[in-house]
Design goal:
about 200 residues; alpha/beta; Rossmann fold; five-stranded parallel β-sheet; four-stranded mixed β-sheet; 9 helices; binds guanosine-5'-monophosphate
Amino acid sequence: MSETLLTSSSPSDRQRSRGRLIVVTGPSGVGKGTLLAAIRRRHPELQMSISATTRSPRPGEIDGVHYFFYTREQFESLRDRGQFLEWAEFAGNLYGTPLAPVKQRLQAGEDVILEIELQGARQVARTWPEAFKLFIRPPSLAELERRLRERGQDTEESIQKRLATAELELKAESEFDLAIVNDRIDRAVQELETAILDATVAQH
Ligand code: 5GP
């Protein structure tokens, strides 16, 4: 994580950062991507950060669109040069938010959404305290397992790792500004939309 770069920005830099950083976290499989895709269809002006990962692309995933896909060596080299706003190891792979595009957009007054897991969200909370942090949770762990299996994108080993991590992640809900239960998608989209718009309007 690039603690130096972030903490070295002066208060006047921060005041010029008129955009708002919005962090969306929740266990893998909870539906963060689906909810955010619905929000973006309604609000194309909202920017999503494109993460870097060492995970292999899933069918249909495009490099530079869904993720920047890197080898572990490439990722570690970028990380060691302070190029990530935050990064974490999740289910055996590395994930990170490229710092430069996020800084540029915030300074241009644009709001930026990060869809990241818990360790990364905690790093952002420390280094970027004015970020608005949202937590998405499933109605139950059993339902989360059903969704992970239904999407059919992960190996059994990866599903087991994701479920074990989910149990820990669910205990962290109180660290967030707001929690939304993804029980019915239309309702959850509505709630997420209201929360994001309130957070971004409050900033401007
Ligand atoms: P997936 O492999 O299912 O795409 O992502 C696994 C987990 O990594 C999800 O919870 C997702 O939100 C999280 N994730 C994706 N990009 C990043 C990132 O840049 N940083 C962090 N910390 N987590 C990420």
